[in-house]
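Worked Example 4.2. Consider the chain below.
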Amino acid sequence: MPSAKLRCCVATNSRLSAYNWSIWLSRATHLVYENRHTVLASVMGVLVVLASPAANAFCFSTDKPSCGPCGVARCADGFWECVGDPTRNGAACNDNNACTYNDICNNGTCEGTTVTCTSTACRTQTCNGTPSCTITNVPSSTSCNDGNACTYSDHCDGAGSCVAGGTVTCTSTTCQTQTCNGTSSCTIVNAPSSTLCDDSNACTYGDHCSGGGACVGSGTVTCTSTACQTQTCNNTPSCTITNAPASAPCSDGNVCTSSDHCDGSGSCVSGPSICCNSNSDCALPGNIGAKTCSSGLLGPLDLRGRLQALHRLEHVRRQ
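Applying the procedure from the previous section yields the following structure tokens:
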């Protein structure tokens, strides 16, 4: 046994798995001869070794590993291992990763600065070991997606961009939802018939969706205004009524009254009579709007004259 102070180390199956057990036993005599290791026993596949401080100078295996550009092989407790070579720190190396550049050794590891090259449907970008990417644009006939659902027939422009072939406009309403889908048409979803809506016609009421995308009213109301009363539609079965002031002028439809005016409640009231004889006199030329009837018409008229007067009176009223 060596005179130097001994220390014990145990090698397990897992550590010996890379080597053939019979080779280890065949080397036992050689190890004793070198006076660096003394094999004591092998129990259940475990090799127990007593080693002197000089044990690191000799390895059981003669196959010295390659530790790359930044490391160095070292024998520890009879086994080779790779450790960082401090003398290589900062030295150029190659980590075999095309997406890094300016690779240098750092405590046994080859490291570089990372660059990201992202490809699209219209442009391929690949790493090349430099700060930039190698760019290849795809042909202009290649289909792509510009990410806008309201365009269709998207294709590459040959310069790396995806452009639209056409644009579609999809406009929704209360009763119909229209959404873009990447084609020249829209995806249409009609609202249920129970959905309330507004058909923009104040003269309909109970507006609701038809179930087919249209807004329809349940009924229609007619609001008719006069000189003394304004009626407007309000989306209900009734009209909004506004009466004109009592002083507002109007016409009661009788040509033999003057100064007709509204009563403030929506009706037109007659003013004083302007003729001194029958109503038919007022229809004769020269008498309409006059406060007194012209001379010669105060007496009775013949039958033909009265018929003519009545005809003219009817014509005036129709106007």
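The first helix runs from residue 13 to 16. DSSP finds five helices and 23 strands in the chain. Compare this with Example 4.1 before moving on.
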